[in-house]
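thread: overnight batch results

M.L. [08:02]
morning all. the overnight job finished for the chain we discussed friday. pasting input first so we're all looking at the same thing
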Amino acid sequence: MIILMGVAGAGKTTVGKRLAQLLGWRFVEGDDFHPPANVAKMAAGIPLTDEDRAPWLERLRGLIQEALERGEPVVMACSALKERYRLLLTVDPAQVKWVYLWAPREVIASRLAQRTGHFMPPSLLDSQFAALEAPKDALPVDVTPGPDAVVAAIREQLGL
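M.L. [08:03]
and the structure it wrote out:
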């Protein structure tokens, strides 16, 4: 299980889909498990609270647990901005590997400005960076070079 985390616009979905395809693993988009109320709140430009995120994180934890029990290899995209979120989702530290996709704020802002079809507006970027607790136990990968280079770096660093 590989979980790609980071702020909106870091490339979690793009990198995750490419990585999963290359590995022949299942890709899971964490955002797909948000309750409708969370999606509506973010679409309206209102940052989520910890209380808003709790049921979403519990759903993801259950999905992770089930995948590990089945021995199903998964690449998941999930913001997991706070340490306590990552601790909750790390069902088994031996089997859950975290990759922190990061870039300078200007790079992320530029990407968000170009993104279409996502419920989270660029106006929430500041709240994402404010909530971000950079992980200590994750593989940090600078996404500035682009998705193909990021996927290659992840595969090299994780020996995949």
